[in-house]
Amino acid sequence: MHSISVKELTLNFGAVSVLKDLNLDVAEGEFIVLLGPSGCGKSTLLNCLAGLLDITDGEIWIKGKNVTWAEPSERGIGMVFQSYALYPQMTVRGNLSFGLKNARMPQAEIDKRVARAAEILQIGPLLDRKPGALSGGQRQRVAIGRALVRDVDVFLFDEPLSNLDAKLRSELRVEIKRLHSRLNNTMVYVTHDQIEALTLADRIAVMRGGIIQQLDAPQVIYNRPANLFVAGFIGSPAMNFLHGATVDGGRRFEAGGIGLSLEGYEGGAVGARPEVVLGLRPEHLEIVPGAEEGRTIPAVVELDEPMGADSLVWLKAGGAQMSVRVPVERRMARGAAVHLRVDMTKASLFDAATEQRI
């Protein structure tokens, strides 16, 4: 049985279609991340799961129960919002226990649940403070704790770290991962931050225009993107793209005087195609001193950008701007003529017309 099952879900706002015949199954205990740019429908989908939006068509099942028209309180979910949404006049203890008191839960059980949440999230010393006396990271822990005390099977996170600085985001990302490992609850997490998605998720659903473009494990999405959108959205810096054609029966790629052998490409025989896009990750290119027939691209260095652990070298090659990761101690002079060796076993090839992976 799936923990969450979304079937042919459609949501229209007037004449505007926001979610389109969307299907999604989330396994018991799975951590799913909904990833995409602003306006892609990821938060809208989460709000539909939570019951905060009425859908136009389709069904939503949670724990084997059809909750399509159920109230949010009847769905057995805990939600953590982007804004902390804490009651400023209440202490942390009061914020954690407020919903349980409204549900008329016995005080002993309330105390037990609050203590458990405080232990898991390491906020025990903060229980008698008010939100105004907490840091951003501490407030977000309290917001997570408020969902945790409900003792539900499904947690929904709506960009919970986007209001925090980079250091706090990194710390809380680890805490959320640890929380999932400890609780093994089903979690659906919305973000536009691909680092969060790649580090947290069991599977990522990359969304665009209300449609899931690809649903797979993080490394599969990174290494074998299903289409040009996913390839360009995932990765920092983005994947390099060369527009050209496959020739010689599909055994070679040509673009602007560049000729590369497609031997080793995991897609196998691709056939002769007049318009294709070759995608290459910056770490799958190597700067070498000399040309190698069918394996290298001539390039000119435009910028050397130290990044700390390594450097990004930006180059002009085949009429396109490309980036390559190199060791930080290797400095490249602007204007230097070099050659880029291509690892075709790590390359991605897309049909330019359909934008789908070949």
TrEMBL record:
Q: Which UniProt keywords apply?
A: ATP-binding, Nucleotide-binding, Transport
GO terms for cellular component? ATP-binding cassette (ABC) transporter complex, substrate-binding subunit-containing
Task: Give the record's GO biological process terms.
Answer: carbohydrate transport
Q: Which Pfam families match?
A: ABC_tran, TOBE_2
Give one GO molecular function term: ATP hydrolysis activity
The UniProt record lists the ABC transporter domain at 4-234
The family assignment reads: Belongs to the ABC transporter superfamily.
Q: State what protein this is by name.
A: sn-glycerol-3-phosphate ABC transporter ATP-binding protein UgpC
